[in-house]
């Protein structure tokens, strides 16, 4: 990115908890991250690590109850989103910050035509007539690569393939030229060819529209293809943070190393077995004392069992939460 690097989104010490009969689930627990203007930040981790809750927290769409944001700041271009009134936040959603939800079939209204759903978003946030909004909707479908958009605009979601529904979700998210787009597992449940098309589409649209992106995924291939920076999450916390080249060339946290080693490699022999991370993610109702990864880690020291490590910069721009580097 040319010129001065400018922070668009800065999340500071964000915690989002859910109250249940079994106790408090600390789904997001003291997360810090930054998205620079024009960049894509990848958030990667196993299912249940808090990635989606992080995105919903930024959008202020955490279901309450049982969930609530208990602490932190979400600074968007100098404005703390957590201090905005709900009506002010409603004006931000869709227009300034948008989100592609995980499952397009359940995110799109099955009884409304595709065009109606795009027009609704445009008219809510922009001073367009119905005719102008319809023209803009066709323009957006064309932009995301849907053939015959004038005809497709009259289709219902069930008449489209999974890849086309995902493109419609991207069209809706970009229809008001937002400055930030949160993409929650945008390639899940799509075949490999369509996945590559969706990633290329998001990358190309980012260049055309200038939107910054938070890419939430469990797929390291997507991270390598589409992001500049990466936050690795585990059990509600960021355990490693840095430039994508640094994370892939020299992963520091044992969990990140395990993720990298579990990727199938083309140069492995036919008889070689994939490396798996032993154990399971800790119960968020009853987190272990000390490091949350200690039950699955081969580098455990006494300190790991007594105190939780902080996220500290190991090399310029590359931070890790691990006593191994203390």
CATH H-tier superfamily of the largest domain: P-loop containing nucleotide triphosphate hydrolases
Oligomer: single chain
Span of the ends, CA to CA: 32 Å
Strand order of the largest sheet: 6-7-8-3-9-10-12-11
- Proper CATH architecture of the largest domain: 3-Layer(aba) Sandwich
Q: Which blocks of ≥5 consecutive residues have pLDDT under 50?
A: none
CATH topology call of the largest domain: Rossmann fold
CATH top level label of the largest domain: Alpha Beta
Q: Please outline the major beta sheet.
A: 8 strands, mixed
Global geometry: globular
Q: Determine the mean pLDDT.
A: 88
How many separate structural domains? Answer: 2
Kindly estimate the percentage of residues that lie in beta strands according to DSSP: 15-25%
What is the radius of gyration computed over CA atoms, rounded to a whole number of angstroms?
21 Å
- Helical residue percent band: 25-40%
Please give the count of helices: 12
Structural class: alpha/beta
Total strand segments:
12
Could you explain the architecture of this structure?
With about 325 residues, the chain is of the alpha/beta class. It has 2 domains: about 5-95 and about 180-325, Rossmann fold; about 110-175, no CATH class. Helix content is about 35%, strand content about 25%. It has helices spanning about 50-60, 85-90, 105, 115-125, 130-145, 150, 160-175, 190-210, 220-225, 245-250, 255-260, 300-305, and strands spanning about 5-20, 25-35, 40-45, 65-75, 80, 95-100, 180-185, 210-215, 230-235, 235-245, 310-315, 320. An 8-stranded mixed beta sheet has the order 6-7-8-3-9-10-12-11, with helices on both faces. A 4-stranded antiparallel beta sheet has the order 2-1-4-5, covered by helices on one side. Helix 4 crosses helix 5. The longest helix has 18 residues, at about 190-210. The chain is globular and about 65 Å long. The chain starts with 6 loop residues before the first strand and ends in a 6-residue tail after the last strand. The mean pLDDT is about 90.
């Amino acid at each position: 990115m040319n010129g001065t690097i400018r922070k668009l989104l800065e999340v500071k010490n964000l915690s989002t908890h859910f109250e249940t009969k079994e106790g408090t689930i600390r789904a997001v627990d003291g997360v810090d991250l930054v998205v620079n203007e024009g960049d894509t930040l990848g958030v990667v981790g196993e299912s249940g690590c808090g990635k989606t809750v992080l995105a919903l927290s930024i959008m202020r769409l955490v279901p309450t109850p049982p969930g609530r944001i208990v602490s932190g700041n979400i600074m968007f271009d100098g404005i703390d989103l957590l201090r905005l009134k709900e009506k002010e936040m409603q004006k931000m959603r869709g227009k300034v910050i948008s989100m592609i939800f995980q499952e397009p079939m359940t995110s799109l209204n099955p009884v409304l035509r595709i065009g109606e759903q795009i027009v609704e978003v445009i008219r809510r946030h922009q001073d367009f007539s119905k005719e102008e909004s319809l023209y803009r909707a066709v323009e957006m479908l064309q932009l995301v690569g849907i053939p015959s958009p004038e005809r497709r605009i009259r289709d219902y979601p069930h008449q489209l393939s999974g890849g086309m529904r995902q493109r419609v979700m991207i069209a809706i998210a970009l229809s008001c030229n937002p400055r930030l787009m949160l993409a929650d597992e945008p390639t899940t449940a799509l075949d490999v060819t369509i996945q590559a098309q969706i990633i290329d589409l998001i990358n190309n649209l980012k260049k055309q529209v200038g939107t910054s992106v938070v890419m939430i995924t469990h797929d390291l291939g997507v991270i390598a293809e589409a992001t500049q920076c990466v936050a690795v999450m585990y059990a509600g916390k960021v355990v490693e943070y840095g430039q994508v080249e640094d994370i892939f060339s020299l992963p520091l946290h044992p969990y990140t190393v395990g993720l990298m080693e579990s990727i199938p490699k083309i140069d492995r022999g036919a008889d070689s077995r994939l490396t798996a991370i032993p154990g399971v993610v800790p119960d968020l109702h009853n987190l272990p004392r000390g490091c949350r990864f200690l039950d699955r880690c081969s580098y455990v020291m006494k300190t790991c069992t007594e105190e939780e490590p902080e996220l500290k910069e190991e090399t310029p721009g590359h931070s890790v939460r691990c006593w191994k580097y203390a």
